[in-house]
């Protein structure tokens, strides 16, 4: 839908009116036949039709193009009243700057920023409303440090709140201690398994060294026995030589 023509100051050229809603063009698009439409209007029309609502020429959404620059400039220069005129805003601005003004307009209806509050109020009156809003929050005047809603003042009990907080902290601490304990046990188990594995490897290496040493001793004894035998044979041969 376009901008209500009643909001505009002075004459509005017929070419700047939407061919469907007959209001001033909003986010305009132009067909090849040069008729202009609001984007929302023409897309809604093409859901059920395949031609231009003015001259019935066939058109397709892919053929729609932005408005000519000179027409866009004429459109942006139009002067109109703020949408909050009924609430007291007397601002008249160009269509080009309208969005910026209405985003900041003091007469705009905005929601209260307090959670739970459903009041819609003019921006200029927001601070006054926040000061008395039943959903406003503030720090407990008794010094417990809690942020409370005005609606909860009668039910607020500093001792009970602090006791609850203490219990929550205690529970959280117990959980963290248990987590740290489980993590340390897991690490110790991992280190213990690693040490057992290393011990088994070292034990196997020691047994292998013992086996090698035993074989070496056996070889040494065999060599010594062979040496004695050889010496005896030499002595016997020496005796036989003397006798001869």
TrEMBL record:
UniProt keyword annotation of Zinc present: yes
Domain TRAF-type: 101-144
GO biological process: regulation of canonical NF-kappaB signal transduction
Coiled-coil region(s): 192-243
Zinc finger (TRAF-type): 101-144
SUPFAM superfamilies: RING/U-box, TRAF domain-like
SMART domains: RING
All residue ranges annotated as the RING-type domain in the record: 18-56
Source organism, top-level taxon: Eukaryota
Pfam family, one: zf-C3HC4_2
Gene Ontology molecular function terms on file: ligase activity; zinc ion binding
Keyword set, alphabetical order: Coiled coil, Ligase, Metal-binding, Zinc, Zinc-finger
Name of protein: RNF41 ligase
């Amino acid at each position: 839908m376009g901008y209500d023509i009643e909001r505009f100051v002075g004459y509005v050229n017929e070419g700047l009116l939407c061919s469907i809603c007959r209001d001033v063009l909003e986010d305009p698009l132009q067909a090849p036949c040069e008729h202009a439409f609001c984007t929302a209007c023409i897309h809604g029309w093409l859901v059920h039709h395949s031609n231009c609502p003015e001259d019935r020429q066939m058109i397709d959404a892919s053929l729609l193009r932005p408005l000519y620059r000179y027409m866009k400039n004429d459109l942006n220069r139009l002067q109109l009243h703020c949408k909050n005129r009924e609430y007291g805003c007397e601002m008249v601005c160009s269509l080009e700057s309208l969005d910026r003004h209405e985003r900041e307009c003091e007469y705009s209806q905005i929601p209260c920023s307090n959670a739970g509050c459903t009041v819609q109020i003019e921006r200029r009156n927001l601070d006054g409303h926040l000061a008395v809003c039943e959903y406003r929050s503030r720090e407990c005047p008794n010094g417990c440090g809690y942020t409370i809603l005005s609606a909860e003042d009668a039910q607020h009990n500093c001792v009970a709140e602090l006791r609850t907080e203490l219990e929550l902290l205690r529970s959280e601490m117990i959980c963290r201690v248990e987590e740290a304990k489980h993590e340390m046990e897991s690490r110790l188990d991992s280190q213990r398994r690693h040490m057992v594995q290393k011990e088994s490897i070292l034990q196997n290496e020691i047994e292998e060294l013992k086996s090698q040493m035993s074989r070496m001793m056996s070889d040494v004894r065999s060599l010594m026995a062979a040496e004695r035998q050889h010496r005896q044979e030499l002595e016997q041969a020496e005796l036989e030589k003397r006798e001869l």
